Amino acid sequence: MILGNRGLGPVRRVVMGSVSDSVVHHSHGSVLIVRDGGGKDGSLSGPVLLAVDGSRQAQVATEAAVEISSATGSGLHVVFVMPTDEHLYGHHLYSQEVKRSVREQAESDVEAFLDERRGWIEAHGGEVEDTQVAVGRPDAEIVRLAEELQAGLIVVGSRGLGGVRRALMGSVSDSVVRHAHGSVLVARGDEGSETGEAR
Predict the structure, then answer these.
(1) Strands, E, within 5-159: which ranges?
(2) Which residues contact 72 (CB under 8 A, 6 or more apart)?
(3) In angstroms, rounded to a whole number, what is the distance separating the alpha carbons of residues 113 and 14?
């Protein structure tokens, strides 16, 4: 599904929502929100920013991003957002040495994961311009990096929450659509199938 965004200001968007927010929130398929302010010329010709997290829906997003970046000749940037120390360690009173070890292992795992993603993308005809690791709240970091790159398109997966859970919890993709200045593709596969390749 492809639709435009009414361009509501941030206050009105929070208070009133918008048609695009609602469609993304409730749709069972992929949704492309097209709005001005994405690439340098307001089109989809700028870089494509793909956010991955290891989920099945991120694999669906990866396949879409490869197809779009290849078709448009746009550079493909891949980002993984790591949790902050508070979320990584929880409320456990680990020593600084243990915390450092956990963080270093997590960073190593993420780098290996991104290397694997680059290999998969290139094996399937895509070309990765850059991979990045960010730390923080996923939606905020994705939007921040998209602005930094002047991305023409952000591609994110939906975690495949059912209608009730999605209505109660929202999602990273909902927030990215709400706060991004450029176009966003929320890629969603078969929500009933979470047993496929999860990347």
Answers:
(1) 31-34, 48-51, 76-82, 128-135, 153-157
(2) 44, 45, 48, 152
(3) 35
Q: Provide the 3-class DSSP secondary structure of residue 166.
A: helix
Both tokens assigned to 51: 């956010």
Report whether 142 contacts 79 (CB < 8 A). yes
Give the model confidence (pLDDT) of 142-183 as tens digits: 999 999 999 999 999 986 444 544 444 458 888 898 889 889
In this prediction the pTM is 0.80
Q: How many helices (H) and strands (E) does the chain have?
A: 8, 7
pLDDT at position 81 over 70: yes
CB 178 within 8 A of CB 21: yes
Convert the pLDDT of each residue in 82-117 to its tens digit.
988 666 666 667 777 877 887 888 899 999 999 999
Q: Check if the beta carbon of residue 80 is closer than 8 Å to that of residue 134.
A: yes
If phi > 0 it is left, if psi is from -120 to 50 it is alpha, else beta; for residue 75 that is beta
Q: What is the DSSP letter of 139?
A: H
Q: What are the sequence ranges of the domains in the chain?
A: 2-187
Q: Kindly report the CATH class assigned to 2-187.
A: alpha beta
What span, in angstroms and rounded, lies between the C-alpha atoms of 118 and 104? 21
Beta carbons within 10 angstroms of residue 29's beta carbon? 12
